[in-house]
Amino acid sequence: MFDYVNTQDTIPSVLIYFTDAKGKFPEFEQSYPAMWLVKGKENIPCGHRIQLN
User: Fold this and answer.
1) Phi, psi at 39, each rounded to 5°
2) What's the pLDDT score for residue 48?
3) Distance of alpha carbon 13 from alpha carbon 24, whole angstroms
4) 3-state SS assignment for residue 6
5) Quick one: which of 21, 23, 35, 42 has the most CB atoms within 10 Å?
6) What angle do CA 8, 9, 11 make, to 5 degrees?
7) Rounded Cα–Cα distance for residues 24 and 9 (Å)
8) Are 50 and 35 in contact (CB under 8 A)?
9) pTM of the model
């Protein structure tokens, strides 16, 4: 997802990512804000976490 967004001509105001947070995260924090809507108890390395129950 982040690779795709970084190839676009415009920078997003925010990226909202629905996840269980068990996948691979980007190596570097992005220049735009990321909101992680997380189902589960895994940690996120950067951005703003919103817990989904």
Assistant:
1) -100, 110
2) 95
3) 22
4) helix
5) 21
6) 80
7) 24
8) yes
9) 0.82
Res. 53 pLDDT band, cuts 50 70 90: confident
Please give the distance of CA 53 from its chain centroid, rounded to a whole number.
18
Structure token pair of residue 32: 């735009």
Question: What residue type is assigned to position 8 of the chain?
Answer: Q
- The mean per-residue pLDDT over the stretch 6-13 comes to 93
pLDDT digits (tens, 9 = 90+) for 21-47: 999 898 888 999 999 999 999 999 999
What is the residue whose two structure tokens read 């924090």?
29
Residue that has been written with the tokens 């990321």 in this structure: 34
Are 46 and 29 in contact by the 8 Å Cβ rule? The answer is yes
